[in-house]
Amino acid sequence: MISQEAIQTILGIKEKVHIEPSEMADKLNITFYPFDPEKASAEVQVFQKKIEDTFTELKVNIVPYEKSLERVSISWRIIRINKIFLNNFLYSIAKLFRKETLYNFIPWSSIRNTLQNKRIKRGISVVVTGECDADNLPMLKTSSFRESSIITILDFPKNINANSSFQDHFDTALSLFAYNMTNIVIAVNKEKWMVYNFNASHPIYPLDKNFKENVLHALIPKIVAPIRPHRFKDFKISKETFDLYDSFHKDAVEDIVASGSLLEKTGLYPKGKKIDDLPFQSNFFKWIGKIHLDNRNGMSYGFLAHQLPLKLSPVFDLQKVKEDFKDVYNPEKDYFIKDGEIYLVIKISSGEVCIKVPPVWVLTQRSGSDKLNIKPKKDLIKLGLINGEMYLQKPEGSILDNDFKPSFDTKVILAHAIGNALVASIIKNSSELNPLFAKKLETEGLALCHWHGYFHPEKIPENIHYYGLENPHVSCSTSQSAIYALQGKITSFTKSLEKNKDFYGDIHVEPHHGSNITFFSIKELAKFFNDNPLATTLGNKYLELYK
Fold first, then answer.
1. Cβ contact 251:444 at 8 Å
2. pTM of the shown model
């Protein structure tokens, strides 16, 4: 086990992060949006009362709607109007020169919404009961769509049933998000309720069983830890480019590119959605949606990445650390910093050891790319994590534009890369452990892959360990998911030592999100999937088998 403080230092997470559901509930501020009874069915209204009572039991801070509002300054409104005018100007210029553009023209009727002098305060999330008219959507009343999650309670979709496919849920969820301008949809009928969020999952729960527990573990974490894509400002952008086809990168590039045709047969990586194809009620809402997604032009699910080879760190005996690093070592903490470098103390079966956290680099696909048909120069991006700082490097000849965005899962990818480097360092410095995992990382690198499904527990590859089932259901891109990834990997590895089992990689199960796997290569993983077609599938089918 690594302390949360150490993990956040390693990953460069500076804000306070709540990782336990009870903490999340205590942190949550929520208000209930006024609703029109004629636009909300009886089932929706009953559910709204039930969830309000449950929030009260869980000590959620419920803010009366009138008290959730604050006056916004004239300067704030002027800035917003100017942004819209700039958007319209750029749209007009593009149309004048007949160029493709990410901008959409926003009419005056939508601009008027920016003139409201009262808005919902930042940090207060909003529960909406039933559908709202386009000019009354709560998104129009929030000070920050990024910092105030919107949760909309709707009737259960008529096209969704127990046999609906992942694609059915995926299409339905994205359409509901766009039309209602909401972060989360709770769909209800007389017997059950379902949660849609940007994880593209669809957990369904009975209304009459474990309601409070499911709200605490499956809904509240999704509200408190919403999806927030990484932006360029989150990285140190390297001035140097890298050569996709030099001796260091070419094998990783080939692994990602060649795996596409193999993975296409599995059906685990469905085509994404373009933002412009979603049913927004106006160009204004489309504009807001694009801003929320950091001007991405689309969304696709899953990632394929190749952790690049690295020089593994030496492992220090703790007594030597106490002598050589006595000026910075603190026995009450499991990490320390010397000359800007982070050192981590880990307890394993043979005792405590100290490792200098090495820099890691990962070659991965840009957000929204066609994962199974990669154009390396256009679609590949290099991400690094060095002493708590994220780095981004682009291939020679590519341009950092609106298409060149890092994955939503960047922090999780880098957390797994750091964890692999720490585990491999321990393995390399032990004469008693199978060295294969360490040798692979040091000479060839490792595959890091994510899809929105789960392994059948009886078909997990040999010496691949799994963890994460007990974690709350948080969204991708969150600090919580990265913390769970690194903490779980180290714990999983130490347990494998206790059981005298070899370690060839692991599966990080993210409940009602999907699976992250560390494997020797993407091509080998794709071959395993094709040779074992019942080993995994999209959706929640196999998740229930772990319980």
1. yes
2. 0.92
